[in-house]
Amino acid sequence: MSTAPAPSRPQLLSAAWGPGLLALFAAAFALLALTPRVQGHDGLLLSFGLAGGLVVAWALALLVRARVRGTPLEVELRVRKPHAIQTLAQAVVYLSWGTFWDPVAEMLPLFAAQIVFAYLFEMALTWTRYGRFRLGLGPLPVVGSYNLFMWFHDDVFVFQFAMLTLAWLSREYLRRRVPSPPGAPDAPPATAHIFNPSAFGLATTGLILIAGGWTHLTWGLQIAVSHGYGPHAYAFIFLAGIVVQLAVPVVLITSSAVLSSLALEATYHAFTGRHYYVDTGVPIAVFLGMTLLVTDPASTPKSGPGKVLFGVLYGVAVFVLYTALAQLGRPAHDGLPAVHVTYFDKLLHLPLLNLLAPVCDRLTGRLAGRKRWTRMTDLQAQRLHVIAWVVVFAAVLPRLEAHPGRQQNFARLRFGLNDAPCTAPLFRCTPACPDHPAHAARCLQRCFERLPAQRRAQVSRMYHCLRSNSDFDPWRGCTKQIFQCDPGGVPPVDGPQPGEPARALAPRMAP
Question: Which pLDDT belongs to residue 287?
Answer without folding.
Answer: 96
